[in-house]
Structures are given as structure tokens and as C-alpha cells.
Amino acid sequence: MKKLAYLAVSMAFLSGCAQSNGQTTNKSSVSDAQGGAEQTLHLSVASELPTIDPALSQDTISFTALNQVMEGLYRLDTEENPIPALAEGEPEISEDRLTYHFTLKPDLKWSNGEALTAADFEYGWKRIVDPKTAANYSFVMTDIKNADAILAGEAEVDELGIKALNDLELEITLEKPVENFLKLITKPTFSPQKESFVTAEDSEFGTNSDAALYNGPFILKDWDGTGLSWTYEKNEVYWDQENVALTTVTNQVIKETSTGLNLYNNGEIDSITLTGEFAQQYNQDPEFMAPLTAKSIYLELDHVNNPALKNKNLRTALAVAVSREELTESIIANGSKPIGGLVTSGLVEDPTTGEDFRAASGSYLDYQPEKATQLWKTAQKELGISTVDLQLVADDDEVTKKVSQYLQNTIEKNLPGVKITIKSVPFKNRIELGDNGDFDLLLSGWGADTNDTNNFLSLFLSGSVFNGGKYSNKNYDALVEASMGEDSGNAEKKWTNDLAAEKILLEDAGIIPLYQQAQAMLLRSSVKNYHMSQINSVNLKYVSIEE
Prior knowledge:
CATH architecture of the largest domain: 3-Layer(aba) Sandwich
Largest sheet: 6 strands, mixed
Radius of gyration: 23 Å
CATH superfamily of the largest domain: Periplasmic binding protein-like II
Distance between the termini: 44 Å
């Protein structure tokens, strides 16, 4: 099962100017631009950095940071191909494709100068699946032999299919052949971790820049765990530091577009996410871009703790009371598109016909205000109530506040007697509230990190740690589990299962789909090789500045 990073609704995804194969990038030669000079990049970010612990990271901002300061056996190049990173060349793969033998590059170092060895991979991966760690993102390890059993408490951590044969050799055993295994292990979750350092830091590990150890192109600096800024500095002991052009990258959390624009226009930052009228104002600027991402934004609902939301008619009324077209065109106005389901467009195609999944699945819970009113009247009778108060939990950035206010206004207008109270909180707190199921409605979202519908559909399995509203349907579970298991190698069966599963989720009004996110932004034209695809965070290793 391969999922993706939790999403800040207005996360500042940065990408370049030209588009090719769904990717965006400013292209130039790193070596041409490097020239040995100091190169500093100033970035804006939408929300605070929650953690730098590879085991506890589950959100886009944390994964983006980890992608700069950590590195695993493989890394993605600018064409989305997995290439050896800490691994020395290609692995030896057994005939049954279950066993991978990797050799590490010699003389690898941690940022404190200590040797990085195969044992650091063994420890790091075992720490991820150890139930004591409580790593929400541990599901990405389930292709590794015995990972599922360990997570379920049915096997010991030492039984995980990874073994350091010596300082440089590593053997990994899988549960079944995995076609994209080398791409999978480019995710930051598969980074090595130094046992002595993690143990010494104990509960402080990953909570500030001094309480972490790095092995990637950059080192994290100036982050106290809660602040609105942090810095990446070039890692001088990184194995490929000669091909890293940037010497310093500053990151500043900016939640108000007008503030960011002033800084951008004054030359103080090199990127800024644009919202609404600002996107319209700058859409002819040569430094403007608005790539559509594989991010699905939706409302989660509490299916367990709130008696009223157990009523399907109320859930459906809430859904069809919202005009996704008005939301995207008039409120967000940055190129984001209405979405009538969970899975985004441009992600997966019919293995037989090539039809896009979103088109094949169709559009559910479309705007029907009159129907919404009737459904609410029916729900009132069934529940024996005339009014209901619902709290909407959401991020506190500018875009999310506007989306929240729109949802509040349109629902209260079309469903008299429904009162929506907005609780705006910092990104980190919204994740915690979502994980704990502490909400009535949660403005949430998810971004794919592989071209697989399971990225989205597995979120709402009964018992999923990301299913904060505790939606549960046995038929849905059976279809998704079959797609991830017995039918994973049969493209046609998987396709049929996935279409049927999404239909169940949406006809249940298990969630309320809203939009597929675009990221309108300005990026300084001097910033080259700033590449971003629909499904991966940027690799600053490849970025350079060319004045």
C-alpha cells in the first residue's frame, strides 16, 4: 500500500515555468549556474513545519523538508526516475524479485561526521514499523516482509525483512514482487536513522533542528520546532555536494498573500503562492504559473461521535448544499478545479481504454440546493431535531479561511437550522485534531505520491489512521483491500474494484468532495531547475540561481 503526505490546504507548492508530461520546471544546467559562488534562495511556505522525524512525518511540509535534508538508497531525478543515491549502483535482485541486495557508497557521513552504514537503514526502517513508535505513515513499509505482522503485533520488530550484512551491504526481502519498489524507497520514510543519536535525543528527536541528524544535500538550521522560519544550509559532508549549487535556502511561513506579494516585489523572497484576485491580477506575468496538482480537497465528517452526522440524509444535504463551481471560480480563483469524487484527474487511466479514472467514475454529490433543503427536512424528522450545531475545523491560512467562510455561508443559507462554527487552527494542530477525530467537519485533503488510486481510497478503510471521521463500510473495505492485495496484479480487476469502491464512499456521503488543487504562484525567473510534478515535492538539490 502506497499512500501520500497529509496536505495543508493552501500548501505552497513551488514549480517552474515550462510544462512537460504533467511536470513543471525552470530548466538550466546546475554546473553552468554554480560557478562556486554563494547562492541563496528565499522561499515562502504556507504553514509551520510540524516535525523533522522521518518516522512521525505524515504531511507535505514535513516531507518537503525531509526531501532536502535526508536521503535514502534512491532519489528521484528531474524526470521522475529513481536513481541511486546512497546506493552504489543498481541492486542485485533475486530471480523471484523478492530479495534486493544493495551496496552503499563508501565513506558516507552523517552531518556530525559519524559514518553512515547499512545498520542505520536497518534501524531506521525497523523503528518505522515498531508499534511503540506509533508512526502513522508506517503503511508505506507494508511491502517489506513481515511489516504488516509487526504492525499488527503478530511478529517481532527484528523479523522485518531488512538486514545489514556488513557496513556497506544491505539485504531487503519483500512480501511479494513490487514493480515500482525503487521509486517507492525514494520517500523520506525510507531514510536511514542513527540509533545512538535517536536514543540519546529520546522524545526530543526531530522536534527542532539541533535534535536531528542529516545526511542529505542540506542541513536544517534555525528551527525551534514552532517558529515561522527555518533554513537549509549546504551539507559539506554530503557525498555529492559538488553538484549542489545552493548554499543557503531560507523558508518563511507567510499566510497572507498581500504580505507575501510585498516581499516578492521588493526582492526579499523568490516565490509566493497567489490566491483569488491576486492570481487573476498576475496571470499574465511571465513569472506566473498555476499547475494542477494531484491534491484532493474535501470535508471529512464525524461518523461516530456526532449522532446527527450518522444520518445519511443530513450528510448528503450538507454535500449537495455546496456549489463546487462557485467555490473554485469565485472564492479560490487560482486554477483549482471542482472535483466530484475523491480520486484526482490525471492520476490513473483505464488499463484497457485509457480513460481517466475521474471521467470514468463520474461526478457525485453535485450542487442541488432544492434537494439539499428536502434532504435536511427529512433528516430533521428522522433525528427529531429542528436545528443542529456543527464545528468546522480548518487551517488558519488565508485561502482556507475563505473556503471555510464560504462553506459556512452556503450551508447555513441552503439548510436553515444548520449552524456552522469555524475553528481555525495552525496546520500542525489541524493534523492532530484530524488524527484524533476531534471535529464535526474537517476541511482536509490528500496528495498522491504515486500514480495509484490506492493513494486515496485506502484513506477511508475502517481502522485507517487517516480516517479521522471513522467512516466504515464492509463492502468498501473488501473492494479496496482486494485492489491492494489479491487483485493488485490484475489491472482490470483492480480498476473495477476501485470504481465500485469510490461509488460506495460517495453515495454514502462518507466525505464531501470539494476541489482538485492548483497552485497559482510567482517564481523568480532566475531560479532554475525548480521542478515539481503532480505527485512529488521539489528536490532543491537540483536547483540553482542564474541571474
